[in-house]
Amino acid sequence: MTTTKTARELAEAYFTAWEAGDFETMRGLLAEDVDFVGALGTAHGTEEALAGLRGLGKVLEKIDVKVRVAEGDEVITWFDLCTGIAPPAPTANWMQVADGRIARIRVTFDPRGLLAGFARQH
């Protein structure tokens, strides 16, 4: 028997997998045509979304979730994005689920610290 995860469960699994660098698990959570828009770029489709998450994953140290609010097929996660190159960035992530997968993601945070950190790396 297959059970469909709730939007909250999908969000929890997404952040756990991202923090662990488990991109194969993430692939199974995302809709094939996932649409991502964030402070550092956009991605359309699973492969583009995973490429972006892998890129930020190279400097990711911790995702410190403060609160997660779910209503129906939508969930918002408020967290500190902790990296090795910048101070923690307070971040809001909104996800919309369709057919048991994450279909739409919108992320907002102040990217200046991360951009400066990336610039120092080069």
Automatic annotation (TrEMBL):
Short name of one Pfam family: SnoaL_2
Q: Which domain of life is it from?
A: Bacteria
Q: What InterPro entries does the record point to?
A: NTF2-like_dom_sf, SnoaL-like
Q: Where is the SnoaL-like domain?
A: 11-105
What is the name attached to this protein's record? Nuclear transport factor 2 family protein
